[in-house]
Design goal:
Blueprint: E1 8-9, E2 12-16, H1 32-35, E3 42-49, E4 55-56, E5 63-64, H2 70-75, H3 80-83, E6 85-94, H4 101-115, E7 122-126, H5 132-142, E8 148-152, E9 163-164, H6 165-177, E10 187-190, E11 193-196, E12 201-202, E13 211-212, E14 220-223, E15 226-229, E16 253-257, H7 265-272, E17 277-282, H8 290-301, E18 305-310, H9 325-328, E19 331-332, H10 338-349, H11 355-364
Parallel strand pairs: 1-9, 3-6, 3-7, 7-8, 8-10, 16-17, 17-18, 18-19
Antiparallel strand pairs: 2-8, 4-5, 10-11, 11-14, 12-13, 14-15
The structure holds aspartic acid (ASP).
Length: 365
């Protein structure tokens, strides 16, 4: 099957890893690859599925993610081959609601192999939007090197009227081909906007404008085929100590959603299921009932990593505001939402169970 290019919509997640190389608005700086009209960058596209590869009845409401193969996606964007030398690899073909640790590890290992290859200039990853923020953040913490890595998806399947896939894929290739993307960490390019993997969140169930970075704003904009970059973040996720070499699984970390009248039942169930860490999507500034706090203090005493995040869409969870994190042995999530806190807690637990050490990771990454 082929995409209908007139009706397809693509979301692009673009990312780069490594040491921030540029400060301030870098639009005025020359882009070496763009200057050399004869040398096209070599971009590898890794496909994982999602709505960008989804198909349903033409123009209809329902569809199935992960139906089209990577070659179909490339062929659906007219002129894409003029921007870069492209080659594709299918890593998985799933809706990102089914994303799991095994696909994350496979993807991160393949990215590391490709980025070590001098002939590869950048990577684009096609991915569903539901868990894109988690995959992007996982890759930001585990992929080594400063070449661009860009994830892209779409909100409408390839068979929809005004599908956004092809436009987003084009944007992602443009971002991954831009040398100024180097050193900015993993990026997401969606709806002509570029986001950092660290701060990106999905905010709307169906809107094309679903991605946002409520605490920090975007990393840049794609204006037709030019990229306009903003100030890079000081966060250092792409320089983390985490390594996935030889790793076949990650520690179990569960997320529990706080609410009025919360008791300890789900906390105890997570512990019984073998959770090594628990992230609470707390009310307000990461708060929860006394019952929940008592159960989690007890869990922390027994070596379970407890992270207080928030169910609110923006803001930071402050250490020691209404909860005595020092006494209880908790970690305050800062600006990481529950899903990103879970990713960082999984990787942190591969290094340490000490809440003080893990707190420093939450501040740095
Ligand atoms: N459920 C889809 C997925 O995350 C939604 C999308 O891609 O937009 O794979």
């Amino acid at each position: 099957m082929r995409w209908s290019t007139s009706s397809s919509l693509v979301v692009v997640l673009a990312c780069a890893v490594g040491v921030p190389a540029f400060a301030g608005n870098t639009d005025e700086k020359p882009a070496p690859a763009a200057q050399d009209q004869h040398k096209k960058p070599n971009i590898k596209i890794l496909a994982t599925g999602g709505t960008i590869a989804g198909a349903g009845e033409a123009g209809g409401h329902s569809y199935t993610s992960g139906q089209f193969k990577i070659d179909d996606l490339i062929k659906a964007v007219p002129g894409l081959d003029k921007k870069a030398n492209l080659s594709g690899e299918q890593i998985a073909n799933i809706g990102s609601q089914d994303m799991n640790d095994q696909v994350w590890l496979k993807l991160a290992k393949r990215c590391n192999e490709l980025l070590a290859d001098p002939s590869v200039d950048g990577i684009v990853i096609t991915h569903g939007t539901d868990t894109m923020e988690e995959t992007a953040y996982f890759l930001n913490l585990t992929v080594k090197g400063d070449k661009p890595v860009v994830l892209v998806g779409s909100m409408r399947p390839a068979t929809a009227i005004s599908a956004d896939g092809p436009g987003n894929l084009l944007d992602a290739v443009i971002v991954a081909s831009d040398p100024r993307a180097r050193g900015r960490g993993v990026l997401v390019a969606s709806n002509d906007t570029i986001f950092s993997a660290n701060s990106l969140v999905k905010t709307n169930t169906t809107s094309l404008d679903t991605f946002d970075s409520p605490n920090r704003g975007p990393e840049g904009l794609v204006e037709t085929d030019k990229v306009h970059w903003f100030e890079p973040s000081e966060k250092k996720a792409s320089q983390s100590e985490f390594t996935i070499k030889g790793r076949t699984e990650l520690p179990r970390v569960d997320i529990i959603y706080a609410h009025a009248n919360m008791d300890a039942t789900l906390i105890n169930a997570a512990i019984a299921a073998g959770a090594k860490g628990i992230v609470v999507a707390g009310v307000g500034d990461g708060n929860m009932t006394k019952d929940a706090l008592d159960a989690l203090e007890n869990a922390a005493k027994h070596g379970i990593l407890v992270v207080r995040s928030t169910r609110l869409p923006s803001g930071r969870v402050l250490r020691g505001a209404e909860v005595n994190d020092d006494k209880m042995g908790f970690v305050a999530a800062g600006e990481l939402n529950p899903s990103k806190s879970r990713v960082l807690a999984q990787l942190a637990l591969t290094e340490s169970h000490d809440p003080e050490r893990v707190q420093k990771m939450f501040e740095r990454y």
